[in-house]
Specification:
205 residues, alpha+beta, 6 helices, 6 strands, 51% helix
Length: 205
């Protein structure tokens, strides 16, 4: 009896199971990171109250969100209502110190598009998207590949945007990542509104 086909079939099945096992291990690592990030996110939520250091809270909120969606870099940009520019207020990743306070021209880039249209956007190949603004990558030596961006809204008023850039895995941003970033955007908007209300209360008439 020729056993070679049977042996070959078993070898293929063992190889398939090994690949499946590796994929499951990768999924487990991602899930553990997501759970840790969600725990951190919950802790940040509890701190949204009058008198909190708003920039530190937003920094922690962004860090937790990036951990959950497995993004290596990200930023929270606030809209300067007078100039129409988006200002990098909170930044995580390789350009953290250099990019903070950098201003995007009104409507520029995917962030500008999201702010103008008040709609979230996930881009799987950023450089090939006509809305992409290459000035950031060129100025700071950065390489944007995948990007998810959601608006910060107060009713019809735009407060800014949150960006998550470059998944730490080979995968694209998922619908679950998109939904989580929308939740984080809502929390960030609540924190910003409360900070504005507190500032109005202490400002003399």
């Amino acid at each position: 009896m020729d056993t070679q086909p049977v042996v070959r079939g078993l070898q293929l099945e063992v190889s398939r199971l090994r690949e499946e096992n590796r994929a499951l291990k990768d999924e487990l690592i991602i899930l553990r990171g997501a759970v840790s990030g969600l725990d951190s996110l919950n802790a940040v939520i509890q701190r949204i109250r009058p008198g909190v250091d708003i920039l530190q809270l937003l920094d922690d909120l962004l860090a937790s969100a990036l951990a959950v969606v497995s993004a290596t870099d990200g930023s929270l940009l606030l809209l300067d209502e007078e100039s129409g520019e988006l200002v990098f207020a909170v930044v995580h990743g390789q350009a953290r110190e250099r990019l903070r306070n950098f201003r995007l021209p009104p409507g520029a880039g995917i962030a500008g598009w999201v702010a103008s249209h008040r709609e979230p956007l996930v881009v799987h190949d950023a450089p090939s998207d006509p809305r992409f603004y290459p000035g950031i990558d060129e100025t700071f030596g950065f390489h944007t590949h995948t990007l998810a961006c959601v608006p910060l809204l107060d009713g019809h008023r735009v407060l800014g945007v949150i960006e998550a850039i470059n998944k730490s895995t080979a995968r694209d941003f998922s619908p679950q990542d998109h939904d989580l970033l929308l939740l984080v955007a809502i929390l960030a908007s609540v924190a910003l509104r409360r900070a504005e209300a507190t500032a109005d209360e202490v400002t003399p008439a």
